[in-house]
Write a structure and sequence with these properties.
Length: 157
């Protein structure tokens, strides 16, 4: 039968650290200050097709900056990556899997790396709260659609 549906498959092939960085420019003086940091977390994902057999690389990038009295206590950046075999899923469904399911798998690994780096740097552990990648994906989709609508309105005026 030529009409047989291709079976959908999503499988993790490998997880690895692509890039990692820890900086604490204000040490040792920062240790004398009261530890009430302003913490900024920046999160990003990207994906690329690796080959023609359905393998995709997904990279979850997390950057955390902790400041005490406007002085940078530490800056940690982790790019946690994975190779995922995805077949039988295309278009919007594929983009959703790459933007939600894969980062959900990668996040605990990135969180552990960040926590470990901060502790090794002499700071308290950083316990990142769980991230709702489904909500982030929907938000990014809505922003892209709004931008497209704006550009469409600008082109018609």
């Amino acid at each position: 039968m030529a009409d047989e549906q291709v079976q959908q498959q999503f499988a993790m092939q490998r997880i690895y650290t692509k890039d990692i960085s820890f900086e604490s420019p204000a040490t040792p003086g920062i240790f004398k200050k009261q530890w009430q940091p302003a913490v900024n977390v920046d999160l990003n994902t990207k994906s690329d097709k690796v080959d023609d057999t359905g393998n995709f690389e997904v990279v979850l990038s997390i950057t955390i900056t902790a400041k005490v009295d406007e002085e940078t206590a530490f800056l940690v950046e982790v790019q946690q990556a994975g190779i995922f075999m995805i077949t039988g899923i295309e278009g919007d469904d594929l983009r959703r899997v790459l933007g939600t399911a894969a980062p959900n798998i990668l996040f605990p690994y990135a969180r552990e790396s960040i926590d470990s780096l901060c502790v090794k740097g002499g700071f308290p552990p950083v316990m990142l709260a769980p991230v709702n990648f489904d909500a982030l994906y929907q938000q990014a989709l809505a922003q892209a659609q709004a931008k497209q609508a704006e550009e469409g309105d600008a082109a018609t005026h």
